[in-house]
């Protein structure tokens, strides 16, 4: 859960909520007024409520996507670690209010109040999960991909040893309509070439291609080819661990590091590595994971 919060709080370079149409369950108009039922509840029921609440937030951003993209473009990485998600959104809007029309400000303020109500419910459910011992069951909040299923863009099954064969796997989440995502593809290819000899690999996960959609795979392949990106890209199953992880990403491109055991290491990087500072930061993190892997052998 902490990783999900971090992803939301980091500067959003591009919002992609293509998952909403496929998985939306909530009623945005009623999100702020409903409450979590009292009493003993099963862990799976609590988790389902949590997923539903996350989705309700997604739907709010999707409903007013254009104006929220303007908000995300104003966010500062220096402030992105704020502990209070809603107040961070509100302060960003307030400090940039001259950039919005009166109607846009009205929409944003109404959305923020709705999100505030959803966040209160999320906190309530998370507390129940903590009490039941089901939430963040690992002391270090490590997120692991126990199963990664799907096919690469050539139709080959994703190998079971995708992670175990590499000291580090750099997993980049992108989609075809995201300009910052496309802009970094050639740099990701350069990164893949650079870390191969070190025991690393870059793999792409195009979220438009989930569950093997042929038309979107064809489109994604054309974009990769145009950018000279030859590293492997996957059309994952939406219900796999990595697919579920991707469904909670709210800013693209997002890049994560996965160790040999399938554990996500460190915090996700949001933003393209065609920015040299981001590239250097990511490379430093990659070398750290590889060094740790070597020390554990």
TrEMBL record:
Residues 1-21 form the signal peptide. Pfam families: Redoxin. CDD domains: TlpA_like_family (cd02966). SUPFAM superfamilies: Thioredoxin-like. InterPro entries: Redoxin, Thioredoxin-like_sf, Thioredoxin_domain, Thioredoxin_ResA/DsbE_sf. It comes from the Bacteria. Keywords: Signal. Residues 132-291 form the Thioredoxin domain. One of its GO terms (molecular function) is oxidoreductase activity. The keyword Disulfide bond does not apply. This is TlpA family protein disulfide reductase. It comes from Anaerobutyricum hallii. The lineage of its organism: Bacteria, Bacillati, Bacillota, Clostridia, Lachnospirales.
């Amino acid at each position: 859960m902490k990783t999900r919060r971090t992803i939301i709080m980091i500067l959003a370079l591009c919002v992609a909520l293509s998952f909403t149409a496929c998985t939306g369950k909530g009623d945005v108009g009623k999100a702020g007024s409903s409450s979590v039922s009292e009493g003993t509840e099963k862990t799976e029921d609590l988790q389902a409520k949590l997923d539903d609440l996350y989705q309700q937030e997604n739907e709010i951003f999707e409903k007013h996507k254009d104006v929220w993209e303007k908000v995300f473009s104003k966010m500062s990485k220096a402030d992105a670690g704020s502990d209070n998600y809603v107040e961070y959104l509100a302060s960003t809007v307030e400090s940039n209010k001259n950039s919005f029309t009166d109607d846009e400000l009205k929409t944003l303020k109404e959305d923020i109040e709705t999100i505030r109500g959803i966040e209160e419910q999320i906190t309530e459910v998370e507390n129940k999960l903590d009490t039941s011992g089901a939430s963040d069951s690992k002391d270090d909040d490590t997120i692991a991909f126990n199963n990664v299923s799907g096919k690469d863009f050539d139709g080959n099954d994703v190998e079971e040893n995708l992670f175990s064969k590499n000291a580090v796997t750099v997993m980049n989440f992108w989609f075809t309509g995201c300009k910052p995502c496309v802009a970094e593809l050639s740099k990701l290819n350069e990164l893949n070439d650079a870390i191969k000899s070190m025991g690393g690999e870059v793999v792409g996960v195009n979220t438009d291609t989930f569950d093997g959609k042929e038309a979107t795979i064809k489109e994604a392949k054309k974009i990769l080819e145009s950018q000279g990106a030859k590293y492997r890209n996957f059309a994952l199953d939406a219900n796999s661990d990595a697919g579920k992880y991707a469904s909670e990403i709210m800013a693209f491109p997002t890049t994560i590091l996965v160790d040999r055991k399938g554990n996500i290491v460190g915090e996700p990087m949001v933003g393209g590595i065609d920015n040299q500072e981001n590239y250097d930061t990511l490379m430093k993190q990659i070398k750290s994971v590889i060094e740790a892997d070597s020390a554990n052998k």
